[in-house]
Amino acid sequence: MKNRLFEGISFLLILVAIYILNHQLTTIADVHMGDEAFYLYQGISNFRLGLQTDWGPAYSLWYKFLSFFQPDTIRLYYLNMFLMSSLSTIVLYVALRVAQFRWYWALYCTLAFHFSPINFPEGVKVSILLFLLTLLVFIMSARYLRQRLHLACALLTLTYSVFAYFRPEYVVPFGVCFVLFIGATFWFRQSFYLVAGIAAVVLLLFFGVGSPLSEKGEKAFKQDFSYNYTMRHPEDARLHEYNNWVDSEVMSQLIFGERVSGLSNALIRHPKLVLGDHLLPNMYNLSVQLISILGTYFTPLTYLRGVSALEPLLYRKLTWLLLMAGFLAAVSIRKTARVAAQRVLDNPWPYIVAITAVIAPVASSIYSMGIKIRYLPPFYFFIPVVVGALLVSIQLRPWLSQRIPAPKPVSPLVRAVLTLLFVLGVGGWMFQESQQQTPTRAIDRKLIEYTRQLTASVTDRDRIRMFENPDALTTYLGGVAIAYERYKRNSDFHEFVKQNDINLIIFRPEIMHYYRNDTSMQRFIEHPPQAFIRKLGFYPNTYTLVRQDLLK
């Protein structure tokens, strides 16, 4: 009865937290036009741009499934955001409880994830969906395969092989889990038929659907390497006129002095450059991101009066050195490790999933990460599982344990008061979080609405041919996108527009800036062909050019 009461309180508070975060979702979150839009576009257009197996086709299928319930693309985007930020919170709480942690620890860690920037308002949700699915696999295995660890490892291995078609870096944990599964099969003396079956399924996916590892990884490396390099070397004037997202091939050739095919090729030929300007900065950036994740668990404390003034101390190395010294002085590492190891051996499944789940985001972060905290949701399972196990395993050193009296049983009244204070504290935390949910300018959504109104008379949306990236406006409008990278700067823009039958051009400020020295494009803007109408753009000091026949 007591457990049901606490579970009821926890789920009630989680539902309140979900309401706080999502009841005005469309006013506090913009519609992002980028990777997420590309996934969405591929799904709703039935892979119009081809089945690009290195671009998360399985996630596009998820959007296709949701589109049956919500055909409007803007509402579809928000529906996915709502589901990801809500379902993952509920399932994380269940997973931590299944991992045998106390309700208050599970609730606190769940709310830390729920209110974190990694969950909301971060726009790219594929990693959140994979986090959700990983937790579901963990729960199902813990429930039905508790005494059959080799079967649980088989399911996890198969799961990660499918996840590679959501995010290619999941090939890495698949390989680790496959080796672990073979080892478990040996250890438990099971038949190798299941190993052969999973290998057959993976090969069937690889040859039937296609490899999840191809050009996207190479391009991502060059884009992020160029980004890292320009951030570290602003004095390199050769790169000032280029954009790392569009001109990554040109920029990487300028930096390396030759064309490289990817990370391994660049590392072999230019190890000092790749290590110094990419891999090591990425490792540092990853550590900073992980510290920021740890910081979200202390966020409630910063809302207390006077405590917020101490927040800068958390970012000082001296603070962490003193805490580490105090920990080593008070805690017996050897005894604690022995108790923790026994706890893991008694129930290894949560720790297997927690560790394997973070392999992919770590690999991806070191390989290509610039500032992408969105890769790291699995750490919100890893951290509470590992830290929780350590906290309950702590053994004090003799000089301290002898001075601490043996704990007495806590009376029901004291337990009830502590529970009430905890619930009130969580309520205060959620109230403070509700005050943080402020309206955004929603520039991208307003741009979409502006363009929708502009093209309202176009009944056949396929007639729209935009000079635009394929992961932007066309996702929400329909039509065809002629990517920026297809136009070689300082060539004949008039001829480019004619050859590609472009009939709608919306110049954003960043595009105007990028092409500011392109005389051909500037002439097109100032003196457009007679077939085009020049209108004031959505942004100040920008223009929209529409071919007249499009609006007829």
TrEMBL record:
<protein>
    <recommendedName>
        <fullName>Glycosyltransferase RgtA/B/C/D-like domain-containing protein</fullName>
    </recommendedName>
</protein>
